[in-house]
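Journal club side-thread
Mid-discussion, someone asked how the predicted structure for our own chain would compare to the paper's figures. Pasting it here so we can look after the session.
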Amino acid sequence: MMTATPPELSRAAEAAQLFRIRIDAMSWELALGRILRWADARESRMVCLCNVHSLVTAKADADLRAALQASDMNAADGAPVAWLMRRLGWPEQQRLAGPDLMAKLLTEAARLQLPIFLLGATEPTLALLAERLRASLPALPLAGTLSPPFRPLDDEDHALMSATIAASGATLVLVGLGCPKQEKWMASQRGRLPAVMIGVGAAFDYHAGTRRRAPLGWQRCGLEWLYRLCCEPSRLAGRYLLTNTLFLLTLAVSLPVALWRRPRT
């Protein structure tokens, strides 16, 4: 299901409904400004970056769907999502990719002295990432890092993670647990942790140098998913076959109706 809220309405209402999930229409400037204001005020907020995988998974996963619906910001991470936004009435919508958002936030956090916490990945990856950040952004206040267990988290895990992050004093928490784990965790902490939580997926691996990101040419053509598939076929082939097929089938039914209903200017 896809609907569009006319762009001429108030800024808070500038969003499309894709697969029953609100995707906010926003520029880099607006997204960064909003996140940094929340962090400076120590507000408990969650930011989700939505792509084909998260939107399709949310159709069958009620907990993920509830997390995305409750999120304070849902940005267009995937190239197909940004393309849909442009078709539905926001012609300037850019792709706000997780690794790019992370890089911009780290730079601004160093400038504004906002403490950052890194949650996710493996301990070796976090160590590499912290080393790189100390070299490239020596002014960055890195409040802490934590690699949680690679298994379903229980109440004790949640309590330890929350206590560790709260004690660090971080106002920005970058969460690299992968979808849907990171979205569900952030939803469980929204209103509890006095920090802005941003789900950045595999961004830790890219910035740590443990995984190569697609060349810019592939990114600009919306083919970063294909590059990842070529690099990790055994891990991603089944996922992409399922989610991409379901996405295209839903799109074939919903997009013509959404375009017909879109307000004309």
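Post-session note: The chain has one domain: 2-259.
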